[in-house]
Amino acid sequence: MDINLTIDNFLNTIFGEVDLTVPGEEKTMLGLCFYQYLKNKIYPAEFEANISKESIRINPIDKPELTKFIGKDDAWSDGWLTWKHSLNDKQILHLIVIYRLSYLQHCYLEKYNQIQDISFSKDMNEYFSISKEELQIEYNKVKVNVGGN
Is 48 helix (H, G, I), strand (E, B) or coil? Predict the structure, then answer.
C-alpha cells in the first residue's frame, strides 16, 4: 500500500478533480487533516474519535502552521480546528480504515506486515466496491492492540 496514493485515490474518487470551489476546499482540508494526524503519529483511536458524520477536528499541535495554510485564525474553536465535511457513514469508515492501515505502516511496520487476510493494493481502490458490512470486517482486521489503536 502506498499511503500517498491511497489517500489521494480516496479523495479523488469521492470529490473528483476539483478546483478551489467548496468541494475542492473540503477535499483539501480532509487531506490536510489526514496528513497532520499521520505526521504527528496521532493514535488511530484519536483520529476516529475526532471524525463524526459532519465534521473532523484537528489537534492544535501544528496550529501556527495550519493557521498560515488556511488563512483563518477564527477556524479554531476550543483550541481545535473543526472542519465540516460531507462524507457519509461508509466513506468515514473507509477513511478510518485507511488511516489505521497508514498508521500501522508508518509507525509499526512489523504489525502492519502481520495483518493477514486483507488486500493491499497500492491505492486500496478495491474498498470502493465493497459494502459497509464488508468494510467493517476489514476495520476489525486492522484494529490491533498496538499504538493506541
Answer: helix
Q: What is the pTM of this model?
A: 0.82
Whether 98 contacts 135, CB under 8 Å: no
CA dist 123 and 125 (Å) reads: 5
User: Can you give 50-102 as a three-state secondary structure string?
Assistant: CECCCEEEECHHHHHHHHHHHCCHHHEECCEEEEECCCCHHHHHHHHHHHHHH
Tell me the domain boundaries of the chain.
Answer: 3-142
According to DSSP, the β-strands at 55-58 and 80-84 are antiparallel
Backbone dihedral angles phi then psi of residue 17, each to the nearest 5 degrees: -85, 105
pLDDT (tens digit per residue) in 110-127: 888 877 677 678 888 888
- CA separation for the pair 39, 135 (Å, rounded): 25
CA gap 121, 135 in Å, rounded: 15
